[in-house]
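Standup notes
- DV: blocked on the single-chain target, sequence here:
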Amino acid sequence: MLRFLLAILIMIPMYANSQDPETNAQASSSSQTQDAAVKPPVAKKIHTQKTVNGKALVDDYAWLRERSNPDVKALLEAENAYAAYVMKPTEARQKKLYDEIVSHIKESDDTVPFLKDGYYYYTRTEKGKQYFQLCRKKGSLQAPEQIILDLNQMGEGQKFMAVGQWSVSDDGNLLAYTTDNVGFRQYHLHVRDLRTMQDLPDTTERVVSIAWAADNHSLFYTVEDAVQKRSYRLYRHTVGSDAKQDPSVYEEKDERFDIYVSRTRSKQYLLLTASSHISSEASFLPADKPEGQWTLIAPRVDNVEYYVDHRGDTFYIRTNDTSQTFRLVTAPVASPGKANWKELVASQPDVPLEDFDVFQNFYTLTERVAGLPVFRVVQFSDGSTASIQFPEPTYFATAANNAEFNTANFRYNYQSLVTPPSVFDYNVTTKQSTLLKQNEVPGGFDRNNYVSERVFATASDGTKVPISLFYRKDLKNKAEAPLYLYGYGSYGFSLSATFSAARLPLVDRGLIVALAHIRGGGDLGKPWHDAGKMMNKKNTFTDFIASAEYLTSHGYGSKSKIGIEGASAGGLLMGAVTNMRPDLFHVVLCEVPFVDVMNTMLDASLPLTVPEYEELGNPNTEPAFDYMLSYSPYDNLAAKDYPAIMVRTSFDDSQVMYWEPAKYVSKLRTVKTDQNPLIFYTNMHGGHGGSSGRYDRIHEVAFNWAFLLTQLGVPEPENAPKP
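- DV (later): unblocked, structure below
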């Protein structure tokens, strides 16, 4: 359903006036590299052409799709070697950046425990270890600790380790969990007996979602198909039986839809949700009748979504059936069809209803007011309403782990560009929030030294585009500062203004950090998403360009020092805006980028392609073909000067295949007319988000920042922040 993240680097002399010894050394070394005529790899061309809608589509690097071709691996390794060679002069800077980021992280830490079925669950990280442990205590926080998953042990001898889903049976005895040890987001199901801490023989592959029935031995799970990675089939497993004999409960035939199984917070029902980019439907099954028949709530309708929760004899349903900003309705469990839907919360044209949570005595609404999340808490007893609002100009807030149905507290997470991640409990009776924990940020961080702002750029059609800003309070001349601008703008996903220890080295070196909340994202609700997809997709790109121009024309950064970054669908953004306005940007960080739009969207056998017909369009139709071709980054590369560019991918990425950036870089090398650096790095042991280990990811970020800072001519501070 989405294309999502990470990157590597090069440098060239462009700061002859710099007085920083390391920067000058880097410039000198880069010049020596050029003098030594070290050349980047050159990919061979094999002319390939096809005709679609009467137009020729040329793809001379199509052969790079041949994953098992030794020439493909050789090219990727040559590109990696070239990137490492050119970046070698920045190794000292990389180490400084890595050490600095780590200094701002409390390496040994626990999350706030949450209660579920009599156990308190939390995760722990330990200094020097890549992964977390999943722990629990029975009855109270003073009880003995049980470590139920240790990813550090699980990751021993593995190049990659990630947990996808985990769920404990109601009696607390069995843990179902899924793991990926490759990076391809293809998960293996395990069942662990928590009384013996032994994994049972019950296993199967390609598992996407899991949910226990109330009998503590029936486990429902969905699996993806072998080609398109579409979650399409629901199975029921009985613990102790052969998973190969599990009965198939449901199969989704429509290639636009994925299915997911879950359980209501009330624990009374299992839910099977089928969703595409524009439609959804849900079926339910009493959790105590795992072999019963599933009941459809309301059949799917194009351009209508609905999402379900439960309380008593009523389903609560968030839907956009009458408005794209969504409303909340109720339906009786006995007859939940649309004819019996009754409006509980009306839609508001300017306040999207983003989410909701139902509890025994109250429910909460997550709304977006002027693009920022706000909570509304409503009591069932008398309908009284209270709001949880936040004072900062830009921030991120979301519901936390609220596993218990009968509770007097609503737990939520809060953070901002200057406020570290914080966990609160809101008491619905006293209407007071209590801070349970705010992440410690060591290394000399003081939030009072930083400023966050929210401003609005004016897009080419007059639309106001929000931008979140972060910089040091003592920044002397904002108008001359380097500007780092990040964007995404796809699938209705909001670009959250979250705290990042990894960004501190940028602002501490005088950069202004900006997040552009462009159309195509969900920052102002579904209408904002709709305005940046399909035949409106170019709004995403022009909004980003307008954001850069607005900032530099209003004293936020120098026009000659703009660095930009985007990943996955944000990589499409990077490729498009770099083609459109290469003069505007000085440095581009482009990670796991979706840049070969036409060839990918014309191949229905690839993961994600068919579902994305509802996001980008179907290029087999001529109007969509022509529109998509007009912005596809790979197809619009041309003979002109480009900025310094770093491209990064992972060989085992399942969301954006490695060959997209490989083809893009290979073609770009042949057409660009500048001498600016272009480097390409493939992580041979990573996934869509790069490496799985937290320290490995920090190394990747440090490498990215070294490239960015070097290309922007930013010197290293004489007295870098100390741990």
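- Follow-up: The longest helix spans residues 694-712.
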